[in-house]
């Protein structure tokens, strides 16, 4: 099933074979070029007055802005896409400059190709994690020993085995009943009688953070605790999404790191002696099977890895799935009628098309040529999953929601290779159950046309927001 997206202008009623039809530039093309778009609007207003002098000036401005903001210019930077809908620009970039493009503003190569992202993520001996030579501030924000996201080789594989004991698919039915459903029902109960809600703040942001608090055995109904954790996650995500740069981002990251350590330290110490069924107790009890004896610092590092991995990422993914559900009537109908196959496929398509984590960084360990681009040793590479997941060389009709893609999970939203997301089964569970709860409890849910319309806002971690709904 393929559909035309009225909100983004993407896609067409395209038969599966008509690949060219969905690769055309969409009406929202100029959304990626705000200055040019504004210039056109200005030109249009003034043309009617036939003021030749003004027209000349505006044409000059248009020429200048084209030189600096057009993605075909070597001076163009992805920084201009913050808060803008980026996908038409990725297509244009690919067409005009190729699959691997230098970005002077981001000071790194943008990798737009599905295959090249996969190649880099699968080969950790040739491409290292950005954090491998992280600046000292990273160790201030997260002191102690490294956890999975900062380990390599055999050590990394052993640590992953421990994480998988906490996050394996077999545990999901139990987590669904004990942690996910209570949290979702609690969130929906709070707005159910009101007839309206803002679903980013009242559902998407609530669920992952409270589910993790619940899994750690913390008082997940505590609103102050929940607000603090949510803010710390946002600050940390923004900080590493910009390669740990920027004074203000660093300051906020330090505060967030400090807050999380203070929250978890007493708990980690307590559970060392007094075990329960929560994540922290399980880490104490099971780490030795794969990792050997663990110290307090190890447990804190693992807890922080899990906590951070789950928060902002899943919040954005839930918001994006809900947005797509609300804005695609035929898809919505298919999902409501089949809350198994169609719903699962829909969740994967929402992750592929809108993602949540838009990119991950790596560095090259040696000179290499990638898709024609000459990469130097130690150059930074921005693996642009958001673009790779719509790569026309990999996907037919890449901009369309297609509930019949095979296999539905072959996108890169969770990474591929040895560092594929450890929490992906839990993330999928939370997204799925949020949609099911909305379908069951508010079948006539719709966007509120009298309120601010959703935009694909933010930068490295993105979602459509706000989601004002009525029911
Ligand atoms: C939709 C939600 C999520 C998305 C889009 C996502 C995405 C990702 C991505 C792209 C990576 C790879 C990072 C890299 O290689 O640089 C990753 C790793 C990781 N994720 Fe997730 N994640 C999500 C949810 C979760 C959840 C719910 C958890 C934990 C409960 C989690 C825990 C982790 C951990 C621990 C890693 C490190 C894996 C390793 O280095 O081996 N994630 N995730």
TrEMBL record:
Entry-linked Pfam families: p450
Keyword Signal assigned: no
Matches recorded under Gene3D superfamilies: Cytochrome P450
SUPFAM superfamilies (UniProt xref): Cytochrome P450
Keywords, sorted A to Z: Heme, Iron, Metal-binding, Monooxygenase, Oxidoreductase
Signal peptide: none
Domain of life assignment: Bacteria
Cofactor requirements of the protein: heme
UniProt record similarity statement: Belongs to the cytochrome P450 family.
Protein name (Swiss-Prot/TrEMBL): Cytochrome P450
Organism in which the protein naturally occurs: Rhizobium aouanii
